[in-house]
Every structure is written in C-alpha cells, then in structure tokens.
Design brief:
The complex is a heterodimer of chains A (261) and B (425).
Chain A: E1 2-6, H1 9-20, E2 25-31, E3 34-40, E4 46-53, E5 59-62, E6 66-71, H2 72-79, E7 87-92, E8 98-105, E9 110-117, E10 126-127, E11 135-140, H3 141-152, E12 157-163, E13 166-172, E14 177-182, E15 196-199, E16 203-208, H4 209-215, E17 224-229, E18 235-240, E19 248-253
Antiparallel strand pairs in A: 1-5, 1-7, 2-3, 2-6, 3-4, 4-19, 7-8, 8-9, 11-15, 11-17, 12-13, 12-16, 13-14, 17-18, 18-19
Helix pairs in contact in A: 1-2, 3-4
Chain B: H1 10-16, E1 38-40, E2 50-55, E3 62-68, E4 72-79, E5 90-91, H2 98-111, E6 125-126, E7 132-137, H3 140-148, E8 163-164, H4 165-175, H5 177-185, H6 187-200, E9 201-206, E10 209-214, H7 216-232, H8 237-245, H9 272-294, H10 304-321, H11 327-332, H12 339-366, H13 374-397, H14 400-406, E11 421-422
Parallel strand pairs in B: 1-7
Antiparallel strand pairs in B: 2-3, 3-4, 4-7, 5-6, 8-10, 9-10
Classes of the chains: A mainly beta (261), B alpha+beta (425).
Chain lengths: 261, 425
Amino acid sequence: MLEARLTQASLFKKVVDAIKDLVQDCNFDCNDSGINLQAMDNSHVALVSMSLKTDAFASFRCDRNIALGINLGSLTKVLRAAGNDDVLSLKAEDAPDVVNIVFESSSQDRISEYDIKLMDIDQEHLGIPETDYAAMVTMPAAEFQRICRDLSALSESVAIEVSKEGVKFTCTGDIGSGSVQLRSNTNVENPKESIEIEMTEPVALTFSLKYLVNFCKASGLSDKVKLKLSAEVPLLVEYPLSEGTNSFLQFYLAPKIGDEE
Amino acid sequence: MARTRSKPKAAATKETTPEPPQSTAKPLPPSTSNPPKVFVLPRHTSHESRIVTLNNPANGAPSRYYFCPSKGFYEFTRIAAPKKDCKSWLITPEKTSDNVAKEQEAQAETTTDNADTEAGLGGGYLTNKADMFLATPIDLLFLILPALAPKAGAKQGDKQYFLSFEDHLDNLASLSRQWKVLLSQHPSLKDRVEQRMAAVCDTVTAGDETMYRLSTDKLTRVLTRKAERMCTQGLPPSMEERFVKTALEVPVMNVLRSDTFTTTSALADSSATITVESHTTATSFTSTTDDLVAKPAIHTPPEVPHLLRLRTSLTYLSSSYLPPTLHPLITSSRTPDFSSLDTHLAALTKLRAEALALRSISDNISRKRGYDEDEGAAMEREEKKRKKEEEEKKKKSESRGVKQLKKVDTSGMKKLSSFFAKKAK
C-alpha cells in the first residue's frame, strides 16, 4: 500500500517534465525511504536518477516495495490536469494494476482523481558508487541552461574545462567557435547568483550539447545546479529538490572520448 | 539423444532369448484346399436337382447354375461380407448329440477320406470367408439366347436363317457339353426350351416341322415386360439413387449469383421413397428458397422418371443376361419410346453445365483468400501488422525530446554500463 502526499503538485510535474524528454517509460520504485527512479535513455549514454525522500512529502506511507511502471507521456497528460498549488496524492495497492492520482485544490474545494494503467517495464539498474570528483561547480541553473542553449546553436558538443581561472565552456562548429568562461564569485546580496568552484585538479571533458540542453529542462526545479566532473567518468548534473531535504534529480552523461580531442 | 525413463533395451532382449514355451495345445488341422461353402437352395426341388456348369449368357464364361428338372434353372448370387469385416461361417452338423455326431463322423470317414471332419468343434467347420451363395430363379430364355443370337462374327446386314428346333438344340449342345447331357436326360427340358424359344422367335412351318428364327421385336417385347415388372416394385434403393434420382436432379438456377446450390426438385410421380425425400427437401428449403423450388429451371415431365427406370432395368437386363451381339439390336429397337426422356436428359445436361459455369464464377468471388493453407500466413501477417502498429504507437507516444535525442551523434560516447556496474536485482 502506497500513500504519498505532496503539498505542491508542481514539484512532481516538473520532475516528470524533466525526465520525459529523456526516457519514455520507467519504474517509480517506492519503498519506505521514498520514491526513487533510475532510467537510461535509448542509447544508454545518459542516465537519470531521481530520489524523493519521505521528508519531501507532506505524508508518506509505503508498506512494501512497489515498482510503478508508468509511461511518462501518460503521466504528463494526467499531471497537466493538476494546478500548480494543488495537493497531489499518489496511491497504489501492493500489487497494483493502476496508480491513483488525486489533485486537491484547497482554495476551490475541487478534487480530481485519475487512474493510470501501469505497465511491466524491465529495466536494468546500475549501481552508482560514491565518487570523489576532481572538480565540482555550483552555479545558477538558469546560467547553465543559457550557456548550453547558446553553445548548442554553434556545435554538437561542448568542452568543459575546470581550472584555477574558473570554468570554461568551449565549442567549435561549422560557422565558427565560441566559449563562455565563468569565474568563481560569491554574491552576498543574492546567494543564488554565486558560482562556487571546488577543484582538486584541472579537468577537461567534452559532452554532447543536445543531452545537456535536455538535462536543463530540470532548471525550473531548482535555483542551483551542481556539475561534478572527473577525467574519463560521466559528468554528473545534479538538481537539488525541495530545499532542506536530501531529494535530488541527477543526470549522468558519458563524455565524448576520441576523435573530438 | 534425449534421456528417457525407459530402461535400457538389454533386459528386453534377454527376455526373448529363452526358447518359446512348448505349446500343449493340439495343432490346428491345415485348412482344406476346397472349403465347404454355404448355399441357400430353393425348397421343394426334385431329387434329381443338381449343379451344372453352363456358359454365362452375357460373357460366355462357364458358370454354375442350379438345375431342377421340374422347376427349371437357378443362378447363384454370391453374397459376400465386406472385405474388412472378418466374418466367417461356423458349419456344424444338423444333429448335435454326441452319438449322432460320431455316427456322422464315422460315415464321413468311410464315404470321404476327409480327415478334417473330425477336427474342430464337434465336427463343425469354420470357413475362412463368409460368402453365401443364393440360388435365384433365372429364365431359361437367357440361357438359350446365346444359341439363338447371331454369331459374333456376323455382320449387321447378314440375314439369319430359320432353323429347325433340333438344329437350335444342336447349337446349344455345341456351346456346352452339359447342355447335351441335360437335354438327353430330361426330355421335359426340351419342351420348355421350345416354349421359351417360341416366345422370342418368328416361326415358319415347313411341312410338319416348325422353324425358328430370333425376332428382335419379340425379344425386346419380352425384355420390356421383364423390365416393367422390375419397375413396378421399384428399383433397389441403390440403383434408384444412382441411376434415377441423381440423373433427374434439376440444378436450381438461382437469381442471386452468390448461392447457386443444386437441389432436387420434387419429382411429379415418384415412387414412395422418392416422394418422401423430395417432401423433406421441399420443407427444409421453404423458408429461404420457397419461390425457387416453386419454379425450378425445368419441369420434370410426369412420364420421365418411369421411362428412366425402365431404361435402367433394360440396360441392367441386357448387360447381365444378353450376349453382347444382341446389345446393338436391343438398344436400336424403338418399342419403348425413350425420346421424351432423351430430350429431358439433354436439357438437364445443358442446365447442369450452365449451373456449373455459374458456380465457378461465384466460387471465384467467394473463395478469395478462402483457402486453408493461407490461414497460417494470414495469422503471421496479422501478427506482423499488430507488431508494426504497436511500434508505431510507441513511436507516436515518444516525446519530442526523446525523438531529438535519437538524432544525437553518440560516437565516442561510451555506454554508462561501462562506467557503472549493473546492480543485481
């Protein structure tokens, strides 16, 4: 039996919106720690990992581990019916055929209820170890989104270099080349605008811009984004969910190695 | 090789190696080369009755006939069980008490040297085949016809001569030796032969002697009378079904091309069985094809079924009892007038051909892809179609982002599974 209650339906909406452009169907694994999700894109070069811990919910109850296989397109359709400030409840039996979603609008005393048919999805889970990254950049999510969008107009891929000077995004395309360099700075007035760079050693890696642009769809979820890089391992793009909890939305992307370098 | 639960074969072969147990039962006597046969003979025949070998009138092959001086000739009809049925006769002596049986056995032993009689069930005998020979009366006329008929070599135009009765008898005797013996032993037979001969022959009197010559007209008349007698009782059901009913079936020319089915139209004056059958057909179609049955494509004239039956009987008679030389004479004779039957049958044949042509057209329409062997292929096709549709549906449900990511050049990018180990489930 699963009963999860989110005070802000918009959170779940945004999470699903951010994931649905990367994967089609995925399992929402529910257990007593919360709702977790891990899925790879079709070409298996990117991975999305979401974790909504119990403290992100207004109330949470899950007696048994339940995997809710949901088509994200269908889920998006239903979530579109929710108002941003609605209270969202997810309910499911122990061996469910459907997941029940209820939106309650506190102001209008309106309750809407939807059932989504579940599907059996065979997905492989990857064990992602705790990694000490060589470089970690924390920056405003909007800034990262802008850089990715701007550079994607020029090229397919971007080189991210983290050094003492800061972080540099460089790209070279048919029409020319471009780069954006950010220096580490601390904005006391508006801490959201701060850029923090922690680095143990310089890193330079190349990534597909299209994937990065795709990840940036999660920008609405959080003011900040963390980029974690180490040589020859996937980039981790992390958006913290609902401040103060351990909930997160993470994207992993394999670096481009070889002919680009 | 697949492993089975059966034991290895060695044990089985061991079992068969010991010598077969000595059978204590008495060995059965070998079957006789000339097994007894079962005959059904007419009652009240004279003691002088015997089985004679005469030439079959139709094919000239020597065949057995039962001859009784007072009652005449009988032919044998063999009634056999179907070949698949393992039927047999158990023939036992009439008196079953032991003494009598022993007596009979003793007699049998003394009279014939047949050792088989003492073996088996109280002197009984088990035949291999369940054949039964039934003696049925045959007109003497048929037996003498080969002698009267023109010789095989004679041409159509050759005129037959009038011959004296004695000459005809000589002819007969020359055909089969047994005729000679019979005629000499039984003078009464001669009178009967002459009587029957007179029935089918033109006669002229030359002096005090009467000369005979086969008359086709008379023969035809006699045969027709016989055939008519056959018809009055109705033909045997199998013959009726095969030669009369199916021959007279009127194909119903339906207005709708799609269902041209043939059905028997009610015969106007049929025998009892036929009427019943046609009634049932009529009732069964009342709901759908009432009007069709009411106006079949062609009406069966009332005299036609009878004529057809008559002709069937005549054909049967001539094929089984007349020498082949007489066949053309009979078929060309005009006494029973079959012309109306012929025209009707010709019309029927034409109709049937039309119905067949029509049906083959409609078959072409309705049988499109109707063959059984296509069923598997159709299912495969269905499966493929379903899969394709599913795939298409899946593709449609893909979000724009997913579609765009498919176009991304992922060369040089390793799969994530090469970085992170798969988690055991």
